User: What shape does this take?
Amino acid sequence: MNIPVSSNTCLRLIKSMEISVDDNLLCIGIDDWAKRKGMDYGTIIVNADTGRPIDLIDSRNSSDVVEWLTRYQKIKYVTRDRSTSYASAIKKALPEAKQIADKFHLVKNLSDAIQEEIRHEYRHLKQIYRNIFEATNFEKRSSTAISDLQDMIKVNKEVSFGFTEKEQKFLQMTTMKSEGHSIADIARKTQTNRRTVNRYLANGIPPIGRTARIDYNRYIGEIRHMCGLEINPTAMFRSLEKIGIKCCERSFTRWFNLNFLNYIHKWNRTYPDPLKVTAPAVWTGFIPSLRKFRILVINPECGVAKDTGECSKDKEIADRLVNAVPILSRLRTLYMDFRNILKGQCANQLGIWINNAQLIGRKQIDRFCNGLMKDILAVKKCHSLPVILDKYTEPFWLSKDISPADLLSLCRPYPDEKMEVYRVGIEVNSAVIKGVINDRQELILPMNSQ
Assistant: This one.
């Protein structure tokens, strides 16, 4: 912005600014912030109605938070993370305020718990993916070897057919020679060069082919790849020469024409480096980093291009492992169900979710569930929640042996068809009328229509 001042001056001016705080605060958010990450932290207070910070506390000690909160007794709602220090401070300073565990920290805590579970199994997951990788490549190599074998059988059949044709020509030449035909007449009727006729009659049929000193099968994968690109044999030889083939171009062309009889190439097609994509797949011990792998496990939509729908390499690796390892699939389902419960505000399903999560039997997930249940009970003790129960569920609510998850499942909306709704007088909102406590039973009677 071309401001002719130093950064220290800007910070000093900002620190000297006074932040006005409304005395009639009703809803605030409280969280910690890092002055030096991992070493020194403070507390930030945010007006939840406006979304603007209203104060900074130099520490996150419970006593300092209590001192700040006691100055604003009109606060009715406090959103916080799952820190016990903040929960106890709010309970001590504002016992009537309702504490709300915000969704961000709940989802983040579950995500961190899943990451810890993955970290304990990270080395084992590497070995699993290595086995998947080697099994997949073995299948590819097997299918390629079978295809090559079929091609060689086809070549041998075609060569055998060509050899039989030479035998027939040689038999025809010897028969015509014994009948007194001239060399020119034999060459004309067999459609063969005169020198070839002389050589056949003098030495018999030559061998079917020469024995190659080069093992061309070592490069069969690269050759098949370049055949798919429709490259001519001369360009193939130049590319193979770069990776170490030791022969002349004529020898390679002769071998190629013999083994790929029906190959048709395009003369005008050129590739500077056609073998770059044929580098053999080698295991490098690579799976995505712990943090990235956790994101790919809990979020199936991550790693997919929005415009083309293509999956990244990390996404493919993560999906393979999720399909191969049951615990990863269960963690993904657990995370998505928890998000849907929070998003849909289905508090009555939270108890079922906790029971299902504990069935997995993982330490970090159990710890998260225990903390979640303790947080639910602490919120219940901080303020009195009105719960309407029927006569069948009331004994369970009052029982001391009921688990927190079952207790939470009772907190569900009361059926509308069983409730009677009518208007009452406005005096019900006054705690004291003319110095007398307003607790008369007549307050909840139906208001006179007049």
Remarks:
- Residues 155-163, 277-284, 378-385 have pLDDT under 50 and may be disordered.
